[in-house]
């Protein structure tokens, strides 16, 4: 290292000149604080996928795009959670595509997924899964991953007021889905 270069801490983002930092150990140290939250989010958003696979896919995507990370737009954790949410959506879409292919062939798709004609009460997980995608993401980030409204807004790339409104709408939808007659 030359005398004019300053050593970087492992938590530093890629270099300011936009050159990709191809240091796997530095990337691992930079991403490590977000791993638990990434895994929680992956489990919530893609419950039938392997959460470790979703997180690994997110980390690969983050590694490939690490030079694009801009700390002025949010923390490393919120950036990594946004990528995890995207990869979880992709895993859900792939699973739905596979179920449709199997269903079209007449075979049983997945024994853990109830058929549409199954009679039974709606449980919280199914009610949450029935939320529109934006509400689903907000609920998982805020209530299950434990992000603040501001952090959730950063992951969702919207204003904190939008997150509050989205969470309000999600709670109303959940009250309706769960049969709460006292909707306020």
**Main structural class:** mainly alpha
Biggest sheet layout:
none
Secondary-structure element series: HHHHHHHH
Cα distance spanning the termini: 63 Å
Going by CATH, what is the homologous superfamily of the largest domain? RNA polymerase sigma factor, region 2, helix turn helix motif
Rg, rounded, reads 20 Å
Low-confidence stretches: 1-11, 16-20, 107-121
- State the CATH topology of the largest domain: Rna Polymerase Sigma Factor, Chain: A
Fraction of residues in helix:
55-70%
Query: What is the beta-strand fraction?
Result: under 5%
> What is the level-2 CATH architecture name of the largest domain?
Orthogonal Bundle
Domain unit count: 2
Q: What's the number of extended β-strand segments?
A: 0
Question: Can you put this structure into words, describing what you see?
Answer:
There is one protein chain. This protein is 58% helix and 0% strand. The protein is mostly helical. The longest helix is centred in the middle third of the chain and has 30 residues, at 76-105. The N and C termini lie far apart (63 Å).
Secondary structure elements and pairings:
Elements lengths: L23 H8 L3 H11 L5 H14 L11 H30 L18 H6 L3 H12 L4 H8 L3 H18 L7
Helix pairs in contact: 2-3, 2-4, 2-6, 3-4, 4-7, 6-7, 6-8, 7-8
């Amino acid at each position: 290292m030359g005398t004019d270069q300053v050593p970087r801490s492992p938590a530093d983002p890629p270099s300011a000149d936009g050159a990709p930092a191809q240091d796997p150990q530095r990337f691992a140290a930079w991403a490590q604080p977000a791993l638990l939250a990434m895994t929680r989010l992956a489990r919530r958003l893609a419950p039938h996928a392997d959460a470790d696979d979703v997180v690994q896919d997110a980390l690969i995507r983050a590694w490939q795009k690490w030079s694009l990370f801009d700390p002025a737009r949010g923390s490393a954790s919120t950036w990594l959670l946004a990528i995890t949410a995207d990869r979880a959506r992709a895993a859900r879409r792939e699973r739905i595509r596979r179920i449709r292919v199997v269903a079209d062939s007449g075979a049983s798709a997945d024994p853990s997924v109830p058929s549409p004609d199954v009679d039974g009460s709606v449980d919280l997980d199914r009610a949450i899964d029935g939320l529109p995608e934006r509400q689903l993401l907000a609920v998982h980030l805020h209530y299950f991953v434990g992000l603040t409204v501001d952090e959730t807004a950063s992951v969702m790339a919207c204003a904190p007021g939008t997150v509050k409104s989205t969470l309000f709408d999600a709670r109303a939808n959940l009250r309706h889905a769960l049969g709460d007659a006292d909707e306020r």
